[in-house]
Design a protein that fits this description.
Layout: E1 23-26, E2 33-34, H1 36-49, H2 68-75, H3 78-81, H4 84-101, E3 107-108, H5 112-121, E4 125-133, H6 134-145, E5 152-156, H7 167-176, E6 183-187, H8 190-199, E7 202-206, H9 213-218, E8 223-225
Parallel strand pairs: 1-4, 1-6, 4-5, 6-7, 7-8
Antiparallel strand pairs: 2-3
Length: about 240
């Protein structure tokens, strides 16, 4: 019988080497925050207003992760995507709708508060890097994670391409004043793994999020974890 990889995605006889990271950068949606239902509701509300077909909440797992523009590009009919001015109008509608309903069903994933408390007890610095617009990222972090002293919170900004562009992660590393080797990146999409690997960070794939393990492995995850507490098992004792 063939032995299967363990929950961390490696050879069960060779667990991942424990590290002494000084900082952890987290993705937001699908990693710290389960926001899928509120994103889907905002998207479907815009579609319904124009008489377009809607999508299941679960389908939005594959639509999100690359910024608002790509989200709308994926959920709208092809005729809308072909007209740049119309797409921009739909983006504005979605952002306005999401601003009204961003905290209806969203919640932190089970185990996230305990993980962040444990990291702070280890004096590990925390940061967030998201493809969600900056204003929405700030709003969600303040509301759901306000008691945690994140050293940097970066969302999508007009003057910087979204992940996997490395501008955001490099800006955070500069703010944290840590080299890439002293930091790991935790995210739930292939884009997150590409970002981490491109910047020289240890790439931790969160399988509790929006995407599956196959995507994370294919994108170069160094390790997969199935629950937030498993991140602590990757740290060296002390």
């Amino acid at each position: 019988m063939t032995r299967q990889p363990d929950a961390c995605g490696g050879d069960p006889c060779k667990p991942p080497q424990r590290r002494s990271w000084r900082a952890v950068i987290f993705d937001l949606d699908g990693t710290l925050l389960d926001s899928l239902a509120d994103i889907a509701n905002a998207g479907n509300t815009v579609l319904q207003a124009h008489g377009y077909p809607t999508h299941t909440t679960d389908a939005y797992r594959w639509f999100v992760g690359d910024g608002v523009r790509r989200l709308l590009d994926r959920i709208l009919p092809a005729s809308c995507r072909e007209a740049p001015a119309r797409l921009e109008a739909f983006i504005r509608e979605f952002v306005a709708e999401y601003e009204q309903s961003w905290n209806v069903a969203s919640r932190l994933y089970e185990g996230v508060p305990e993980l962040l408390d444990a990291l702070l007890a280890r004096h590990v610095r925390l940061a967030v890097l998201s493809n969600k617009p900056q204003a929405a990222t700030d709003r969600c972090v303040t509301h759901y994670l306000g008691r945690y002293p994140f050293a940097a919170v970066l969302g999508q900004q007009p003057d910087r391409p979204p992940k996997p562009d490395l501008g955001g992660v490099r800006e955070i590393l500069a703010q944290l004043a840590v080299p890439p080797a002293a930091c790991c990146y935790v995210g739930d999409t292939g884009v997150d793994m590409q970002t981490a690997r491109g910047a020289g960070l240890y790439a931790v794939g969160a399988t509790w999020g929006f995407r599956d393990a196959a995507e994370l492995r294919a994108a170069g995850a160094d390790v997969l974890i199935a629950h937030p507490r498993q991140l602590l098992e990757l740290f060296a004792p002390g």
